[in-house]
Structure prediction request, 253 residues.
Amino acid sequence: MLPELFSIGPFTVYSYGLMTALAIAAAIGLGEHEVKRSKIAEEGYIMGLGIAAVIGGYAASKLLFWITILPQILENPAIILDYLSNGFVVFGGLIGGVLTAYAYCRKKKTDFWTTFDLAAPAVALAQSIGRVGCFLAGCCYGRPTEGALGVVFHSSSYAPAGVKLFPIQLVSSGLDFLNFLLLFAMWRKGGLKRGMVGVTYIITYSAGRFVLEYFRGDLERGAVGALSTSQFIAIFTVLIGLFFLFVRQKSRD
Prediction:
């Protein structure tokens, strides 16, 4: 749609990169504001957490993507270099980000569940902004459609040119924003047991992603039987979320 925003000499600003940067900045900004308001940690806590989670999430999302294209890599290992700056699996990023966040909390001697509750709305907000970047770049595109809401890409390196596609990126962005509003309202309301906001995020995102995958058109991300890789993972993350929902509800703290 608009993969390159503008250029200054040899320097080009790409829409996906810019929206990703804005998404990270928005998440960290919101998190730092809530830390200051709630006084659950020292100033700069979320900045450090965000940097750690981004690094861990990037590495995990890239690793999971490489796993989905493992047959191609085994045939030609050099193609890894073609996917250093693109090719991610969001679920890998989430899993890697959560594990990194857990390690960060252990190091800082802070409560993981409270941190997870605070971070969940920020992550959903970041995803909403990031999906706009996907739309502008043309990646993560939808299935062909004849519907009135279909969009046509002409200059994308990812989406097929001249084909009307379902705008799954914008739908995902809108649903992620609604998820943010729900989670943020839960966080601000308070009175819930620690971890309930974060666990709710796992369930809502996973269930939504499972359904939205049926409208995706970029099928090169791999599959497990009749399910896409993300749908297969979503089944387990929903079950994990439901398990921890039960555990946290029954907990005494």
Observations:
- The helical segments are 15-38, 45-68, 70-75, 90-108, 112-137, 168-189, 196-212, 229-250.
- The CA atoms of residues 224 and 232 lie 7 Å apart.
